[in-house]
Task: inverse folding
């Protein structure tokens, strides 16, 4: 029997012990099925259907014949082969187990993914279709077919809910609930702010899977819900907008309140946000949708994650390593906003994901040297950091320079005050005048670190708004605001490099904004004759270098999402424009240089002499 045949038999026994270089080692009724080399029964694994990819290789031996081998499976990097033919011959049995990860379980972390072997940076770990998609709990009015913004100009002929067009009306996702929505007779009339009428749609789609697609229902219902940890506020909102609608309005009383609340919790904990298009006038008028995936949700969180998640235009999930990952290391994703401080990040994660993060960044008072939660020391101007960042309620605060103790009540009150101000400004987004953001920064820059999360949120808005809002185009910006834009871009880039290194959309965006500022400064100086053509070329070349850095921070693989593709296209167009401008300036005839008056050559006068007479007397 070959190892491939043995694997299928061993799985049927249910007593899988360990995968060796030659196959899976299994005991049944105390007897070994086959006497393979490197046989070991020292550590029994808890193997489920999802765990069948566990590969623990001891030697570089061919999985087909057991001979010494150097070639690895390029996908999972866990199985070796001595030849291409043996890899092809073993594929039939290996294909089901060909995964670069395995699933492990602990009491404190639950189930999570672990690297099966040493994975290089950029390795494709997961590529999978969603189990289900739908509107999120905080969306504005959107199309139930494609999740774009709607204005009510087209209504579904079946249920009278707003859609984009006939194509979206016949989309499979909407057909799931169309007949039920017709019976419910719910009118959508608000197309501006958050619309709670959409909150029950995605839970309804999940519940319908129980009878319509049992395989998908099994995947979703097996996910963690943390229903026992749900807050009273959350239960009241879901009870009012989801449970009551499904059980009473739609008449689906076969599902209990506990069943529906469990599904609501599963979506809150495990769903991933999709990229939607719409007016994005403010964050309350944005269409929002999410998706649930069969494997990706198992990745644990880390504020400095070692993977990147990317969702393409067809909502397919792609997970790649962001850095080299060692064998046995947990595969992690980032579920929080990297520019928030530790205290806010940890509370947001606990509120929506039901755990307290204790990663390396959260444990570090300086947050990896970024000082995103730090204040200015009133004594020396140094950096004030928390002494116990994982226990914000009891922590003290100390200056890193002069070691003076700062009263925690004052810092916490300041943080709370500035957070409220930032939230108030961000709730209106583009409707908020630029001057209000500038005023907030000016009022707090003497007491907060330049990288304090409240300052960074304001700078993030201003760095983008300078050059884009009406009346603040690049050509209209004062020199002071233009310099401020570039300074803010540099501050944001430096902070992001510390808390979100490699392939950051935000870093790429602010590098692009920095390049735009540099180009505008060079244009103004060249037009005023302050710099020569050669100096103009140098300035444009520097901006071109910044653009190349921006492209390097974008997701470099072909499975990138729409935002990356749009940003890449925009950056490449700017590069082409810069190349044309550099060539034009470089080949232009240098302008004639006028010399200063004091350096002009003095005109020499001819010495006076006697005039010769042309004619004499008597002529």
Result:
């Amino acid at each position: 029997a070959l190892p491939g045949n043995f694997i299928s038999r061993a799985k049927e026994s249910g007593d899988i012990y360990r995968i060796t270089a030659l196959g899976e080692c299994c005991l049944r009724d105390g007897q070994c099925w086959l006497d393979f080399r490197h046989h070991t029964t020292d550590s029994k694994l808890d193997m489920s259907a999802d765990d069948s990819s566990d590969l623990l290789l001891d030697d570089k031996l061919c999985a087909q014949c057991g001979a010494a081998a150097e070639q690895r499976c390029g996908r999972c990097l866990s199985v070796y082969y001595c030849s291409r033919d043996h890899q092809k011959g073993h594929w039939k049995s290996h294909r089901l187990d060909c995964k670069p990860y395995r699933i492990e379980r602990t009491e404190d972390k639950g189930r999570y993914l672990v690297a099966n072997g040493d994975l290089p940076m950029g390795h494709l770990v997961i590529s999978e279709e969603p189990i289900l998609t739908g509107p999120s709990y905080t969306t504005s009015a959107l199309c139930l077919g494609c999740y774009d913004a709607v204005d009510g100009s087209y209504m579904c002929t079946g249920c009278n809910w707003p859609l984009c067009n006939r194509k979206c009306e016949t989309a499979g996702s909407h057909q799931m609930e169309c007949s039920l929505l017709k019976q419910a007779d719910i009118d959508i009339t608000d197309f501006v702010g958050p619309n709670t009428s959409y909150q029950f749609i995605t839970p309804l789609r999940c519940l319908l899977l129980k009878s319509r697609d049992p395989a998908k229902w099994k995947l979703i219902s097996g996910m963690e819900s943390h229903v026992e940890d749900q807050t009273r506020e959350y239960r009241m909102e879901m009870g009012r907008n989801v449970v009551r609608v499904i059980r009473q309005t739609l008449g689906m009383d076969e599902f209990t309140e506990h069943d529906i609340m469990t599904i609501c919790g599963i979506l809150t904990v495990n769903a991933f946000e999709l990229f939607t298009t719409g007016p994005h006038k403010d964050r309350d008028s944005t269409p929002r949708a999410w998706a649930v995936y069969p494997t990706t949700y198992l990745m644990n969180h880390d504020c400095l994650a070692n993977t990147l998640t990317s969702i393409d235009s067809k909502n397919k999930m792609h997970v790649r390593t962001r850095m080299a990952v060692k064998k046995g290391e947990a595969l992690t994703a980032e579920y929080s906003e990297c520019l928030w401080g530790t205290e806010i990040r940890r509370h947001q994660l606990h509120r929506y994901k039901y755990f307290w993060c204790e990663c390396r960044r959260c444990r570090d008072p300086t947050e990896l040297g970024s000082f995103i939660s730090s204040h200015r020391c009133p004594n020396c101007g140094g950096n004030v950091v928390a002494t116990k960042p994982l226990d914000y309620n009891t922590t003290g605060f100390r200056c890193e320079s002069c070691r003076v103790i700062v009263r925690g009540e004052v810092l916490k009150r300041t943080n709370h005050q500035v957070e409220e101000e930032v939230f108030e400004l961000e709730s209106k987004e583009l409707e908020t005048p630029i001057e209000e953001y500038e005023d907030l920064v000016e009022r707090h820059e003497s007491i907060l670190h330049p990288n304090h999360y409240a300052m960074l949120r304001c700078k993030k808005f201003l760095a983008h708004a300078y050059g884009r809002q009406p009346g603040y185009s690049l050509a209209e910006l004062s020199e002071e605001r233009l310099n401020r834009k570039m300074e803010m871009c540099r501050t944001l880039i430096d902070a992001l490099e510390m808390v979100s290194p490699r392939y950051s959309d935000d870093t790429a965006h602010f590098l692009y904004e920095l390049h735009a500022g540099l180009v505008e400064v060079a244009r103004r100086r060249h037009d005023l004759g302050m710099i020569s053509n050669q100096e103009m070329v140098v300035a444009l070349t520097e901006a071109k270098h910044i653009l190349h850095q921006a492209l390097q921070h974008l997701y470099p693989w072909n499975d990138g999402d729409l935002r990356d593709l749009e940003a890449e296209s925009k950056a490449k167009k700017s590069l082409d424009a810069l190349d044309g401008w550099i060539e034009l300036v470089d080949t232009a005839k240098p302008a004639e240089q006028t010399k200063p008056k004091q350096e002009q050559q003095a005109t020499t006068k001819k010495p006076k002499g006697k005039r010769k007479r042309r004619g004499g007397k008597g002529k």
Residues 550 and 571 are 8 Å apart (CA to CA). The first helix runs from residue 3 to 13.
